[in-house]
Amino acid sequence: MPALPRPPGAPPLPLVRAWILPAILLGAGCSAGGALGEIHLRPSDLVPSVLVVRWTSDVPGPSFVEYGEGEDLDQGTPPDAGGTQHEIAVLGLHAGTRYRVRPVTVDDAGQRHLGSVETFDVPLPPLQLAEIQTSGASSEPGWVLMSVMAPDQRQSWVVIVDRTGHVVWWYPSDPTLMIPTVKPGRDGKSVLFGQYNNEDARVVPSIVRIALDGSKRTTTSTPRAHHDFAELPDGRLAWLSLDVRTTAYGDLGVQPVAASTIVEGPEGAGPDDPAVRTVFNFFDDYSAAPSRSCPCAGREVMGLGALDWSHTNAIVYDEPADAWWLVSRNLDNVVRIDRASRRILWELGGANATLDSGPEPIWSHPHITHIWEDGLVVFDNGNHHQPPVSRIAEFAWDDRKAWQVWAYRPVPERYAPFLGDVRKLESGSYLASWTPQGLVTEVTPDGQVAWSLKTGPRVGTGRLHLLADLYPGP
Asked: What CATH number labels 40-121?
C-alpha cells in the first residue's frame, strides 16, 4: 500500500533517525584517543535518560558523540554546527543500561580528533514504566510518544518507548494532576502535555512543554482546562476549558450546566493573563440548546456542581483552512468550526448531524485526535453499544454524506469505557491505545495485530504519537 499523505495542519515529523554522516566525518585518519580536552558528562537537567556531553576541541569543526552498549561504538548523534565549544545531548538511550561514549571533532582536513571513552549509566525509570513490554514486529519504525497513568497512585508520565519496549525518555506530571494527552512540538525539539485534575477545579491545570534534550520547561496556566489542547502556528496555544451557567437542561429543568469552550492564549501565560480569550463557547455558538443527550450528560463535572453537557474531549487545528475540529463525547459528534467567525460549518454524528451517515448511530462516545481533510480515525468507546464493546474505525466524507471505510473489533472483544486513542500511520496501519487495559496495538489494514505494548497492572496508556526521530531536522 502506498504511503498516505499527512493530514493538513499536522506538525512536521522530524527526520528519520538514520544519520548518514558525511564521509569527511567518517574518514580513516584520526589522532590518538584523548586528543580533545576534558570531557564532562551529566544527565540533563529535567530528563535523567538524556546524556549531555560537553568538551572543548583544539581545532574547530563539526562534532558528534559516538556511543554503544558494548565494545563497539556503533551509534552516533548528528553533528553540531562546529566551532571549538561543544555540548551535545545524546537521546534514545535505554533506561537501566550502561553506555560507552566518546566525543569526536573533525577538522577541515577530515582528521578525526577523539576524546577519551567514558561510561554513563542510564537510571532505571519509575517502576510503573519499567514493567512495559512489547511483542511483534511493527510495520513502521520509530518511537512511541504516549502518556502512562497510574490513577490509583495519582501519578502519570510522558513516556517515549522504542519499538523493542525500551523506555528512553520520561517526565512526571505535577502532584495531583494526570496527563491524558501528549503531542510533539511543532519545533521538532520538544514535547507538550496537558495535565489536569478531573475531580477538583480548584487545582489549576496547565500545558507543559519540555525540550527533548531536557534543557527547558515552559508552563502555561489553563484554569478549568480539560482533556486536550493544540499548538498554533504563531506559537500560541489553544485549549479546552469549561463555562458554567444556570440554564434549562431538558427534562431536569433549570440546572447549573457545564459546557466546553475553546480558549487561546500565549504560551507561558499565567492564570489571569489579559491576552487569554475565549474563541468558541458551546452555550453561545452551538446550534442546539443544552439537553441531556444520554445518562452520561447528567453527571457532575470537575467538582463544579454543574452537569456535564458537551464533554468535549479533543481539539484539532486545521491550519490550511484556519478551522477547528471539536469532538464531543456526550454529543457523539465531530463539529467543524470556522476559526475567524466561530461559525459551525458542519457536524458529523449525534442528533444534530448535517452530514448523512445512515439511520444508525455511527459510534457511541468517540475519542478522535487524528482528523484530515476528508477523513478521520475514531476510538469508539462503545459505552451504549449493546453489549458495550470498543473498536477502532476509519470514516470518510464528502459534501453530503459520511461512510465507514474500515473497522476493527478485537477478538475476544474488549471494552475501554473512557479515553482511548488511535492514529493512522503512513504505512496504512492503525496505532491504538486501549487506555484502561494499559495496552497499545498496531493493527494492519487486514485486521491483524502486528505489534503491541503492555504496561503493568492498573497502569493505563493515554493518547499517543509515533515519532520518526528524536532529533530535530536541520
From this structure: 2.60.40.10
